[in-house]
Design a protein that fits this description.
globular, 11 helices, 33% strand, single chain, 32 strands, four-stranded mixed beta sheet
């Protein structure tokens, strides 16, 4: 009897010890399925989803809109611009990403210096002036979007009757615009160009209206109609009529939305017809539709080649999951477009890194620094001291893995060929309000080719700004609630 009791106690102790070890392992390491990640990278499931779009949906609530979202690579392949290799696709994506980050850094730096958007001039002014006389047109703004960097697209109807087309989603831009006929110069897009003459609800905005004056500088064509221009960091631009139009989202009609009707659009996107601005400025779609959708929207992004689940975008009450974890939304007094968060620390392998204090992510009095979350930036950029400390901690926890040379902007890569799974350190972002976002291994160790070279998907930023990119956001529903000034994260809720 005594031996039986002792044996039971020993078994209980062993089970308890194993349970503690399991919890400790889950807090310090997680398993990366190498084979599954490689299969996903070489898959093509998203290419077909772009062609199988349903324009309408039954039973949606009037206070919410639910939309599907596709990655730009699926449109690039369908429009004949496919890059043949997995490696080539990623290299192009990272090239676009670097251009976007440079543009965002410049915009924040100029704002911190006190340079207003109204003082900025087009970088490619000669070609613009050839079509628009300088005294008739002077509306110039710099967008956070650089050439071709729109990564995720959604589909919506423009005009009456609605003409459905793809639009880039961008939390780093405010003004919405679409390519329009007649077109002086337009880039290639998947759908036919929008013809405003064929829409019964298209209206040009008169120069003297308050809506025109919401542009940083109100341009005026022939002393009658408002003109807009959006200039990009690399000299690309879109120019045309500032107008109001009806938009249709899967059967729901939104009237009198202000957007640019671009007649000269150079050096911008592949596939999409224009841009749906999701920023915090007064001309963004969430701001314009605040009365209907309460300035609430969310998206959940999956990898471009993930199967079984599609990315989604929601506007309105259904956009914010009640069970999400929330962190306060901050404001930059010098720049109203971006969504700023307060990152207070990072843990690698279950250890909070004391070498990354919260002060590294603080915005200063001039509006420089801080942390933004962005839909159009792919790779998360951290200020150099924070990135170096995080990377070194990750390297220390992966000493058993075979290293490989760098790849593009990635400086920490591994040769995982011949391995089915590997154990890697956990990685957690700690945001203000005890909002701890634990990243899946696939969000920070990604394949860069088909030969099992995987890289740590972060980079440093030489400026004071840090940017949470969309690779690290994948698999989370990210909810933007400007009514209560908070951002929420809900893991595993891409099924809208």
């Amino acid at each position: 009897m005594e031996k039986s009791v002792m044996l039971s106690a020993l078994v209980l102790l062993l089970v308890s010890f194993m349970s503690v070890c399991a919890r400790e392992f889950s807090a310090t390491h997680q398993v990366l399925d190498v084979e599954a990640a490689l299969r996903a990278r070489t898959g093509s499931s998203m290419a077909s989803s772009a062609q199988e779009w349903s324009e309408t949906v039954q039973g949606e609530k009037s206070d919410s809109i639910v939309l599907n979202v596709v990655h730009r690579d699926s449109l690039s392949s369908s429009s004949g611009n496919n890059i043949s290799s997995v490696k080539g696709v990623l290299l192009e994506r990272l090239k676009r990403d670097a251009a976007r980050v440079d543009s965002i850094n410049t915009r924040v730096h100029l704002a911190a210096m006190g340079v207003s958007k109204s003082e900025l001039k087009p970088l490619n002014g000669s070609s613009i002036d050839a079509r628009f006389d300088a005294k008739d047109f002077s509306s110039s703004i710099i967008s956070g979007l650089a050439q071709g960097s729109g990564e995720y697209f959604t589909r919506l109807g423009v005009g009456t009757p609605p003409r459905y087309t793809y639009m880039v989603l961008d939390t780093g831009s405010d003004i919405m615009w679409i390519q329009c006929l007649p077109c002086t110069k337009c880039y290639g897009q998947t759908d036919p160009l929008f013809n405003p003459a064929a829409s019964s609800t298209f209206r040009k905005v008169p120069c003297a209206t308050p809506l025109c004056k919401k542009l940083d500088i109100s341009g005026c064509r022939s002393n009658r109609y408002c003109e807009y221009q959006v200039s990009y960091g690399d000299g690309s631009f879109t120019v045309g009529d500032f107008s109001t139009e009806t938009l249709t989202f899967r059967g729901q009609v939104i009237k009198r939305v202000a957007l640019g009707c671009g007649h000269d659009n150079e050096g911008l996107f592949v596939g999409a017809a224009g841009l749906l601005g999701l920023g915090r400025g007064t001309l963004s779609f969430p701001s314009q539709t605040g009365a209907q959708f309460s300035k609430q929207f969310s998206y959940c992004l999956v990898d471009r080649s993930a199967s079984g689940t599609s990315s989604s975008l929601i506007f309105g009450a259904a956009a914010v999951p009640k069970s999400a974890i929330f962190t306060p939304l901050l404001s930059n007094p010098k720049l109203d477009t971006f969504y700023y968060l307060e990152l207070v620390g990072i843990s690698v392998g279950g250890r909070r890194l004391t070498s990354i204090p919260a002060s590294l992510f603080k915005m200063d009095a001039t509006g420089n620094g801080g942390v933004i979350i962005d839909s159009g930036t792919s790779v998360t950029r951290l200020v150099e001291p924070a990135y170096t400390a995080m990377r070194d901690a990750f390297r220390a926890g992966t000493g058993n893995l075979k290293t490989a040379g760098g790849f593009s902007l990635f400086d920490t890569c591994y040769d995982l060929s011949g391995l089915k799974t590997v154990k890697v350190p956990t990685l957690v972002f700690h945001f203000q309000g005890r909002a701890d976002v634990s990243l899946p291994a696939t969000n920070y160790l990604i394949p860069v080719d088909t030969s099992a070279i995987f890289c740590f998907a972060f980079a440093g930023n030489t400026g004071g700004l840090s940017i949470i990119g969309n690779i690290q956001q994948q698999g989370y529903r990210v909810a933007f609630d400007s009514m209560t000034n908070r951002v929420g994260f809900k893991a595993g809720s891409c099924l809208a």
